[in-house]
Amino acid sequence: MTLPRPDAPLRLGVNIDHVATLRNARGGVDPDPARAALLAQQAGADGITLHLREDRRHIIDADLPAILQAVQIPINLEMAATAEMQAIALAHRPHAICLVPERREERTTEGGLEVAGDATRLTSFIAPLAAAGARVSLFIAPDEAQVEAAAQVGAQVVELHTGSYCEHCASGDDAARDAELHRLFAAASLAQDIGLEVHAGHGLNFVNVGPIAAIPEVVELNIGHFLMGEAIFVGLEAAIREMRRQMNLARM
Ligand code: PXP
User: Fold this and answer.
1) Across the chain, how many H-helices and E-strands are there?
2) What would the pLDDT profile of 135-190 be if each residue is shown by its tens digit?
3) Ligand 1: which residues within 6 Å by Cβ?
4) Dihedral sign, Cα of residue 54, residue 57, residue 61, residue 63
5) What are the structural domain ranges in the chain?
6) How far is CA 201 from CA 25, 66, 87, 217, in A?
7) Do the beta carbons of residue 13 and residue 221 sit within 8 Å?
8) Among 202, 223, 247, which is best to mutate for testing ligand 1, by the most ligand atoms less than 8 A from CB?
9) Which CATH architecture has domain 11-156+164-251?
10) pLDDT per residue over 63-76, tens digit each?
């Protein structure tokens, strides 16, 4: 596949949820997600992403103000579209809010948000967040109907779910990988055409990040699990710097 030349700088949002996963495995305060956020900032991250799940399995309520205080770069709060989460977001006012689907039994955010089928509720959910100055993003599958619905409900940003693409990369199914990449390209192009900013994320690592970083409309990647795993071996700063290098290479 020939990739068009990207025209926008690519930001890296570092998701620090799994520092909290490790902390919660023992209880107590170590390792501290706010310290990880600060290190990520020092290593050149453009933003910090954290997902306050309804079951608080990793990030807990106190982490949000601690991280907001620890760093100067923008904070992107991932959350379910519930009244509880809306109140927390309005109380703390992070720079960005990414609405994600949530199921208790899932290990991670498995699919994209159903926007088209929940448009009325999402429109009234997003309005007060946007009025409070947050950039509201919707985490969706690379599906054109969902992209169009995202614009209709008042989102400013879509984050395209790269999970299926990453799974096909890992399984070695090249045809499925290319088909998913094609869907990502089409969704990114449509989103930009209708005025949405385009982000992408989920499952990205050094091996699979290149083609996603090369999608010209994508201006931000949010990456967590792989970076935290890699940090065990090389340290967080080195892991982030290498991801940055890979993203820049793909973007050239
Ligand atoms: N973007 C969103 C919306 C997510 O829910 C997640 C996972 O929490 C990520 C990005 C990061 O995915 P990963 O941890 O697989 O890099």
Assistant:
1) 11, 8
2) 999 999 999 999 999 999 999 999 999 999 999 999 999 999 999 999 999 999 99
3) 15, 17, 51, 78, 98, 100, 108-109, 139, 159, 201-204, 222-226
4) negative
5) 11-156+164-251
6) 25, 24, 26, 14
7) yes
8) 202
9) Alpha-Beta Barrel (3.20)
10) 999 999 999 999 99
